[in-house]
Amino acid sequence: MTKTILLIDDDLDLLPSMITLLEEMSNYKVFGANNGAQGLEMAVEKRPDCIVVDVKMPELDGYQFVRAMRGDNTTASIPLVILSALAQDKNKFVGLLSGADYYLIKPVSPRDLLQTVDSAMQVTEDDRIRRMREFSEQ
Fold first, then answer.
1. Which pLDDT tens digit goes with each residue over 7-42?
2. Strands annotated E in 1-138
3. Which of 92, 102, 115, 136 has the fewest CB atoms within 10 Å distance of its CB?
4. Neighbours of 77 (CB within 10 A)
5. What is the edge-to-edge ordering of all strands in the sheet holding 4-8?
6. How far, CA to CA in Å, does 45 sit from each of 3, 77, 85, 104, 113?
7. Which residues lie below 8 Å from residue 47, measured CB to CB, with a gap of 6+?
């Protein structure tokens, strides 16, 4: 069965080209949403194997999206990658603390993004719990 990626980004120039590029470079089926609220609906409906989400978006930002996904038992285990132009350490910390498995800085090569998606799909629930414990001890 073909694995799926949900790509959520409000950049309407970037989204279609990234979907096409990722599909051409992999065996994944990639579909997109252009804001966090639409992405949340699609995530619940389609149950993708991994989600890549931007931070700065209308209606529901990436951090809120990740917290919503992790707070719902039906979507809590879906691997999540934040892909954002927000490059400060505090942004990465907030993203990972929200529950993302990885935080990538734009621009990123499609190859690096696919490698990160592959890695995210290997993260277990025990890995997530261990990381949250480490964050709480800092």
1. 999 999 989 999 999 999 999 999 999 999 999 999
2. 4-8, 29-33, 50-53, 80-84, 102-105
3. 136
4. 13
5. 29-33, 4-8, 50-53, 80-84, 102-105
6. 15, 15, 28, 26, 24
7. 75, 78
Distance, in Å, from the CA atom of 24 to the CA atom of 93, rounded to the nearest integer, reads 32
Answer whether 0.85 is exceeded by the pTM.
yes
In angstroms, rounded to a whole number, what is the distance separating the alpha carbons of residues 53 and 34? 10
Tokens encoding 61: 């930002």
Q: What is the DSSP string of 48-63?
A: -SEEEE-SS-SSS-HH
Tokens 């261990």, residue located? 130
Q: Report DSSP state, residue 29.
A: E
* Residues above pLDDT 90, as percent of the chain: 87
Look up the CATH architecture of domain 4-137. 3-Layer(aba) Sandwich (3.40)
